[in-house]
Amino acid sequence: MREAVREVAKCFPTAIISGRSRDKVKEFVKLSNVHYAGSHGMDITMTPTSDNEVDGVSFQPAKKFLPAIQQIREVLEEEITRKIEGAMVEDNRFCVSVHFRHVHERDLENLKRKVETVLERYPDFHITLGKKVMEIRPTINWNKGHAMEYYLHTLGHTNVDDVVPLYIGDDRTDEDAFKVIQKRGQGIAILVSSIPKNTRASYSLKDPPQVLAFLLRLARWRKSSP
Fold first, then answer.
1. Smaller CB count within 10 Å for the chain: N or C?
2. pTM of the prediction?
3. How big is the CA angle at 115 (ends 195 and 86), to the nearest 5 degrees?
4. Domains and CATH numbers, the chain
5. What band does 58 get if pLDDT is binned at 50, 70 and 90?
C-alpha cells in the first residue's frame, strides 16, 4: 500500500488525514511526498515540494486545548486502563482515543459511563464514536472535512473547475469529508466497507486490497495520460 500511495502522490497532491497523531501517522506511512494531518485534521502540515510556496505551513486550530487534553488522558488512563480489562487510552495529541475493541460486552456500559463522568469536568470537550473507539475532542468547528478544505485552499484548488478532489475513508469520521465533496458538487468520495452502510460517499470499495488495486490503476492511468 505504501508504494501505491507513493506513486499516486507523484501524480497528484496527496494528503493523509487521520484520527491518530500526526507524528504516529508519519512514522507509520514513511513517505516524504504526501501531506499529513493528524488528530482528525486538527494538526496539519504541508510537506515541502519544489513548486509549493507554503512549505512547512502548519495549522493547529485546537492548540489552546493541549493542557486540558493531557489532563483528560491522564485521568482516563487511571480510571479506565487500570480498571477495565481490554480498554486502551491513546494520546493522539489534539484528541484522546479510548479503544474498546477488546473490552467484554458486559463492561461496555461501565466504560461509557466512566468516560462521560470524566468529561463532566471538561465542558469544552465532547465524544464522537468511530470503529470500536470513542474519541474525546475539543468542541470546535473542525473535522476531517475542514482539513480537506484547508488543503484545497492552501494548494489553490478551492474555486477551480479542473480539480477533482478524491477522498477514501473507512470510518464514521470520514463522513465529514464526504459531505464536503457532496456540497462541492465535484469530486469522488469512496467509502471502504465490506457491508452496506448509510453514507454520503458515492462509491465504495470492499477492503484494503481493492483500495490498493484502485490506487495502482489511478497512478498508471495518470502516467499514461498525455
1. C
2. 0.85
3. 60
4. 2-61+142-224 (3.40.50.1000), 63-138 (3.30.70.1020)
5. confident
